[in-house]
Design a protein that fits this description.
Length: about 250
């Protein structure tokens, strides 16, 4: 599979998901729990609709799909980390910050990633990366801020004061990391732990991390080498994503 083919597949998947969820976005019944996903977390109605729509397209390809609700599906040489909706709360509340995320890798390790795709399902804004990173077809690059006092940071959740200019949380890690890639924000931080592991899962962040990397971001996972991370429902992440100028400064104060 080529990056061009992965882009075509991703767009088909995103369009099918948009079509299938459009009538429930912002409705109270979108958040009804309809089951428990393979990752052990509750599955909401809109999650199920989105995942079914995504898998409907992806199952036509020779790929192994790793997804939050369905777990591992399919066979092939290409692994796809799929998050049909990242920002479920936002989607159920009608807040226009929720995305679909697909990461394509030639191996079960993130080091094999050759294409990443994230689309804001509410606005249609599209991010993707092959050898470069793009937003809506235009090349993007991380910011060049070099002073912490000038930094606009997405941070889950600070427990002390930091010398940043602004702190924000939007509720969709894939889109937030893409905002680092396009320079809208300067750093993404999520170093939380639960039961000894990070909160973020591979389908939450794999695609956007590739997009950020190809846009010039420096990425640290506090629990190990990013390339060695598995496309698996058991994998977890604790991340710092920023431009090169501020990365070590941020690590030093956390």
């Amino acid at each position: 599979m080529t990056p061009k083919e992965a882009l075509e597949i991703s767009r088909k998947v995103a369009e099918n998901v948009e079509q299938k969820i459009k009538d429930v976005v912002g409705r109270s019944d979108a958040g009804i729990i309809v089951g428990i996903g393979k990752d052990g977390t509750p599955t909401k109605k809109i999650d199920k609709l989105a995942e079914d729509a995504a898998i409907e397209i992806l199952k036509e390809e020779d790929v192994v799909i790793v997804s939050e609700e369905a777990g591992v599906i399919g066979e092939g040489d290409v692994f796809v980390a799929l998050d049909p909706i990242d920002g479920t709360f936002n989607a159920t509340a009608g807040v226009p910050i929720y995305s679909i995320s697909l990461c394509f890798s030639n191996s079960q390790n993130l080091g094999g990633t050759f294409f990443g795709y994230v689309r804001n399902l509410a606005t249609g804004d599209e991010y993707y990366a092959n050898s470069n990173s793009y937003k809506n077809g235009k090349k993007i690059r991380v910011s060049d801020v070099d002073r912490l006092e000038d930094c606009n940071v997405v941070f889950y959740y600070p427990i002390k004061m930091y010398p940043f200019k602004r702190l924000r949380i939007f509720g969709s890690a894939s889109l937030e990391i893409c905002m680092i890639a396009d320079g809208s924000f300067d750093c993404f931080i999520d170093i939380r732990k639960k039961d000894g592991k990070g909160y973020l899962r591979v389908y939450d962040v794999a695609a956007s991390l590739f997009i950020a990397k190809k846009a010039g971001a420096v990425i640290t996972d506090l629990d190990g080498n990013l390339d060695d991370k598995k496309i698996s429902i058991d994998e977890r992440f604790r991340l710092i994503v920023s431009n090169e100028k501020i990365h070590e400064k941020i690590k030093s104060i956390l």
